[in-house]
Amino acid sequence: MISKAKYEEIGRKIVHASYTVHKELGPGLLESVYEICLFEELKAQNLFVERQLKLPVVYKGKELEKEFIIDLLVEKSIAIELKAVEQLLPVHEVQLLTYMKLANLKLGYLVNFNVSLIKQGIRRKINGFL
């Protein structure tokens, strides 16, 4: 179990890494470019990061023929869903919350890199209590 302080520390690193990638690349690229760059930036901060992690749907103990893919999973505890869209929509938040619930994660970040100021593109989501 990760402490609230540890979640906050990792969260700060995620936000900082997102700022760094956006400052370097700016808006207007494909999501996959931001994903690989953010992956590298997070690894450079000594975080354990997994990319394109398959997430099965398990219902009543049975794995169903449906799976989702988490863009980035940090320290096996925090999901990051990346976008490069004109504007974030409610469906994007539902997507992240679905991943968090299915993976039993308490914290997630939705990051849209297609913005002029990255702080406008970062949304932090909490599933339950930290």
Describe this entry's structure for a reader.
This protein is α+β, with helices and mostly antiparallel strands and 130 residues long. It has one domain (4-126). 38% of the residues lie in helices and 32% in strands. The protein has three helices and five strands, in the order ααβββαββ. It has helices spanning 4-25, 31-44, 90-102, and strands at residues 49-59, 62-74, 78-83, 107-112, 122-126. It has a five-stranded mixed beta sheet, sandwiched between helices. The longest helix is centred in the first third of the chain and has 22 residues, at 4-25. The protein starts with a helix and ends with a strand.
Oligomeric status of the shown chains?
single chain
Can you tell me the residue ranges where pLDDT is under 50 for at least 5 consecutive residues? none
**How does the major sheet shape up?**
5 strands, mixed
- Rg from alpha-carbon coordinates: 14 Å
Put simply, the count of helices is 3
Q: What count of domains describes the coordinates? A: 1
Q: What sequence of helices (H) and strands (E) makes up the elements?
A: HHEEEHEE
- Overall mean pLDDT stands at 95
Number of strands: 5
Helix percent band:
25-40%
Percent in strands: 25-35%
Q: Which descriptor suits the 3D outline?
A: globular
Strand order of the largest sheet: 1-2-3-4-5
Distance between the termini: 10 Å
- Quickly give the structural class: alpha+beta
